[in-house]
């Protein structure tokens, strides 16, 4: 599943479509996608894992889900969920994704301060939300899009290893310093992810995600196929990632 940094890259790659008029719409979505035909793109945006195309009075929201993808000025051999063709011959196509429309201004639909990649990100608000979820596992808290919009499973695993916290630690049991590290690194690692992905070296920087040995202490990593409420894969070191509270 593409995480927030990947959607930021998509937003940057699609920025040139702003100001262009949609000439034709194609795709197999059940949404009324033809409403975009003849409309001018006012801007492209991202919030967490959502890619947003803004029109007058409404917005297209694309969520790439687990296996979604996109193509700019080219097509795959399969039908897109939605494709936008512009007057200058350029096009933007999305595959195997969720497509929805959001009516009205985006500011009414999204809390930009919850997006770890956004300039409006508010770490103090994230800490307040976490303190209201004391029984949540640290792994689940990081994947909560209302707290950390854009954080996905890779970022979750890497952040917890970076701050030496076991994924099954309870949020309410984390010392204030560790809670602060969790909030800080959710954003900092996301920007590291963005930098590495743009340089095509992201996988080379994985410390625990899909790895078998902890690079910090040499111990074999633990693996859980379905951890927490989110039921996502977890890779972690039981030797150097402390479980709070330790039983």
Automatic annotation (TrEMBL):
Gene3D superfamilies: 1.10.8.50, MutM-like, N-terminal. Keywords: DNA damage, DNA repair, DNA-binding, Endonuclease, Glycosidase, Hydrolase, Lyase, Multifunctional enzyme, Nuclease. It comes from the Bacteria. It holds the Pfam family Fapy_DNA_glyco. One of its GO terms (molecular function) is endonuclease activity. SMART domains: Fapy_DNA_glyco (SM00898), H2TH (SM01232). It catalyses: Hydrolysis of DNA containing ring-opened 7-methylguanine residues, releasing 2,6-diamino-4-hydroxy-5-(N-methyl)formamidopyrimidine. Residues 2-93 form the Formamidopyrimidine-DNA glycosylase catalytic domain. Belongs to the FPG family. PANTHER family: FORMAMIDOPYRIMIDINE-DNA GLYCOSYLASE. This is Endonuclease.
């Amino acid at each position: 599943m593409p995480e927030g940094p990947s959607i930021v890259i998509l937003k940057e790659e699609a920025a040139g479509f702003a100001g262009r008029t949609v000439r034709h719409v194609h795709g197999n979505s059940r949404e009324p996608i033809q409403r975009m035909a003849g409309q001018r793109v006012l801007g492209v945006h991202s919030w967490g894992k959502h890619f947003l195309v803004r029109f007058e009075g409404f917005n297209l929201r694309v969520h790439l889900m687990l296996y979604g993808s996109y193509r700019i000025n080219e097509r795959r051999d399969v039908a897109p969920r939605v494709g936008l063709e512009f007057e200058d011959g350029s096009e933007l196509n999305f595959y195997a994704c969720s497509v929805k429309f959001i009516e009205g201004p985006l500011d009414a639909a999204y809390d930009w301060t919850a997006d770890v990649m956004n300039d409006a990100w508010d770490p103090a608000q994230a800490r307040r939300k976490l303190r209201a979820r004391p029984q949540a596992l640290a792994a689940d808290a990081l994947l909560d899009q209302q707290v950390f919009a854009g954080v996905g499973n890779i970022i979750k695993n890497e952040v917890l290893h970076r701050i030496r916290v076991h994924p099954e630690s309870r949020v309410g049991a984390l010392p204030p310093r560790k809670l602060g590290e969790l909030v800080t690194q959710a954003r900092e690692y996301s920007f590291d992810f963005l930098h590495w992905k743009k340089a095509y070296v992201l996988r080379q920087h994985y410390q625990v995600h899909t790895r078998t040995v902890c690079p910090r202490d040499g111990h074999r990593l633990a693996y859980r196929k379905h951890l927490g409420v989110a039921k996502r894969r977890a890779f972690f070191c039981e030797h150097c990632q402390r479980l709070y509270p330790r039983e």
